[in-house]
Each structure stands twice: as C-alpha cells, then as structure tokens.
Write a structure and sequence with these properties.
Blueprint (H helix, E strand, L loop, with lengths): L1 H8 L24 H11 L4 E3 L6 H11 L3 E3 L11 E3 L5 H10 L4 E6 L2 H13 L9 E6 L6 H11 L19 E6 L3 H14 L6 E5 L18 E6 L9 H13 L6 H21 L3 H6 L3 E2 L2 E4 L2 E2 L14 H9 L3 E3 L2 E3 L12 E8 L2 E10 L3 E8 L2 E8 L2
Parallel strand pairs: 1-2, 2-3, 4-5, 4-6, 6-7, 7-8
Antiparallel strand pairs: 8-14, 9-10, 10-11, 12-13, 14-15, 15-16, 16-17
Length: 399
C-alpha cells in the first residue's frame, strides 16, 4: 500500500517498476538462520532493505549491509557515528527532550524505561550531565520489567520525588517550572496505556506532576482523565501533513490512511516515506548524467546483475559488494522532500534524520491535548508561555 501510494504520487519520467520482497525475520529465534535468509534476498537482487533493526542487532546488521554495500533504511532511530550503509528514518526524540529540559531548567528528572532503546537513550542523557548542557540535572532512573507490576514502582517514584533537592540560582531568562518531572519511555504502546492507568489509580495526577511521554504515537492515548487534578502531560508529535499538501496529494494521502485498518501509526507513515526516499533517488539518478544513470542498469533479461554476476552472492568466501552501492547510497543521503513525517533529510556523516520538526502538545487542567508550539532539530524550541489566563509566544534556541 505504501509503495503504491508513492508510485501514484511521484511523476516518473522513465518507465520502471519496483518489486517489494517481504520477509519477516525474528532475530531472537534460534531456529531461523538470519544470515542465510538475508543472503537469499541478496541473491534475488535487491537494491535496498527497509525494516526494523533492534539496538542489539544494529552492529552486525549495519556491518552486513556495509560489507555488501546494500543500503538499509531503518524505521528505528539508532545512534551511530557513521552510517555504515544504515540510514535512520525515525526522527530522534532525545534532542527534543534535552531542549525541553534546558528551556525549563529542570533539575530533577525521573526516567522510567522498559527496553534497550530506552536504556540507550537514558545512557546518552546521563553522558550529557558531564557537559555544560545538563550539568545541573539529577536523574533518577527506574527499569520497568512488567507493566502490570508497576504499582510498586510508582509508589517508589512518589516517595523519591517527595524529597526536596537543592537548586542552583537561575542564570538565564528561561522559565523555570517546579514539580515532579517523570519521563515515560516504553517500547510498547500498550505499556503506556497500562502505566498511565496505574498512575490514575495511584492519584499521581495532582498539579505538581509533569509527565513527558516519549512516543510519537501519544496522540492515540486516551488522556481524558488527565484533564483533571491539574496534572501536566507533554508529548511530541509529527507535524500534520495535510497543511502542506496540494489537493491531489492530499487525496492520495487520505486514501492511503483509509487503507490502513489499524489507524495512521507513525510506522505506517515512515514506511511511506521510506518508499518515497527510494523512488525519488531512482528518479534523480535516472535524470542525472550518463555515468550515474548507467549505474542503475542492473537488470538484464529480467535478472539482477552485479557487474557480470547474477544477484549478490554472499555465500562466496570472497566478498563481492554491490558495485553501484556507494553511488546509490550517496544519492539516497542527498535526497530531501516533504513526506508524511515532515521534512525528510539525512546527515551525510551518520545517516540520521536532520532538520526535522515536532509539534509540542500539552494536556493540563480542562484542556485536552493542545498544540503549544514546536521543536525544530537540533535545538530550537518555540512554545507558548501560559501565565494565569494569558498566552505569550516564546521562541528560543537552546545551545
């Protein structure tokens, strides 16, 4: 569905078709030979891989793609110093969280997580305490093993945050907000629902609590109860695509969303943007000079060729990478467009998303999720300051 949406959206000056080979791999299943499955795909002739890569599997998977020079477009965000033929399509939430912490001069933060991705994000946050960025931040971390048993963990958090801490003098004009700041960083959407229900039953919804939800699907959470008691809930969301699309593209988008029975999750939007990244790159290369265009002529007589060899053979003792892979990767990294997840643009150095934007939402008092501003990577936060009943726009750059 995502592939067809992009094929309908983009104007193709050249006749070609792109075939989708779907394969579900469970890296934790010892009965599946993951390496052989990937080799079979390469031998069939593939130009790119789109999929999820767990943090634990990232090193070997990016190494595999680097060895055979086949770009991997990941639907997760993995922090890495160089791309190794791996590109992260998921925008990184950590810079938004850091900018939020610095803007409001938060000096104590409870961080609750439940998987390796959350642990890695927490590790990065702790490392920032050694720099000027977050040197005054006190972090209390708690690992959530089973969301159904989170009641005792929340009780512990309530006790730990009831103890006041010493604060340093305010040295900037940014607004300081006092209270108990709690980050919820979970892998499963169901875990958010379970934990927030436990929070409600524990009565941790008074005005001194402020929850920061680290999922881009937070709009789909039912926060009706959190309108009462004065509790604050902040989360980040992808910008609306409908505001910038023309009528034709908007019609295609609406049809695509209707075709997704489970609703427009972030993953469904990322998959569409992954396909658009690939097809825009192919269009660009076919429209380029002869040398670049010739690199894409890899199909002869209906078969995929790597120079003179059919497919990419990774069972050979001698590694023979895909010959056009490097120039194909360079073109992928230099593609930019307005996709369903906002501005799609990549760092040439790391392969991560850059110059992306989040909307900032807050639930408080009798207001359901309200858009109070935006975050623009890497460190620009524009939010409305609410004082009594007046709203004042406040746009800053942190760092």
């Amino acid at each position: 569905m995502a592939r067809q949406y992009v094929l309908n959206k983009l104007e193709r000056r050249f006749q070609y078709n792109v075939t989708e080979l779907v394969d579900t791999l469970d890296f934790d299943d010892s009965n599946i030979d993951t390496w052989s499955t990937l080799c079979t795909q390469l031998s069939s002739g593939i130009m790119s891989i789109i999929g999820h890569a767990n943090y634990d599997d990232f090193d070997w998977l990016s190494g595999f793609c680097s060895s055979y020079q086949v770009p991997f477009i990941g639907l997760d965000n993995n922090d890495h110093p160089k791309n190794n033929y791996y590109m992260s399509l998921m925008p990184d939430l950590l810079p938004a969280l850091v900018t939020f912490i610095r803007h409001y001069q938060i000096n104590r933060l409870v961080y609750i997580y439940d998987d390796t991705i959350g642990a890695h994000r927490l590790k990065q946050l702790i490392q920032m305490k050694t720099t000027q960025a977050l040197q005054n931040l006190n972090i209390i971390s708690r690992y959530l093993g089973n969301p159904d048993d989170s009641y005792d963990l929340l009780q512990n958090v309530e006790h730990m945050t009831s103890i006041p801490i010493r604060t340093s003098p305010i040295t900037s004009t940014n607004q300081r907000l006092f209270g108990r700041y709690i980050v919820l960083d979970f892998q499963s959407f169901d875990t958010y629902k379970i934990v927030m229900d436990k929070i409600k039953h524990r009565g941790m919804t008074t005005a001194d609590y402020h929850y920061i939800i680290l999922t881009l699907n937070a709009k789909q959470l039912d926060m009706t109860y959190f309108r009462y008691g004065g509790v604050n809930v902040t989360f980040f969301a992808l910008p609306s695509y409908t505001a910038s699309a023309d009528n034709y593209t908007l019609s295609l988008y609406e049809n695509y969303i209707k075709s997704i029975k489970i609703g427009p999750s972030v993953e469904s939007l990322l998959i569409a943007d992954a396909w658009e990244t690939l097809l825009r790159t192919i269009n660009h290369m076919l429209s380029s000079g002869n040398e670049t265009r010739e690199k894409l002529k890899v199909f002869r007589q209906g078969k995929f060729y790597n120079d003179l060899t059919p497919g990419i053979d990774c069972r050979n003792n001698h590694i023979q990478p895909w010959s056009p892979g490097k120039i194909y990767l360079n073109n992928l990294l230099n593609i930019s467009f307005q996709g369903l997840t906002g501005n799609v643009q990549f760092s040439n150095k790391t392969g991560q998303r850059i110059n992306y934007t989040f909307d900032v939402y807050r639930v408080t008092r009798n207001e359901m999720p309200k858009n109070i501003g935006f975050f623009r990577a890497p460190n620009i936060l524009g939010v409305s300051q609410i004082t009594h009943c007046e709203v004042h726009p406040h746009f800053i750059r942190v760092g």
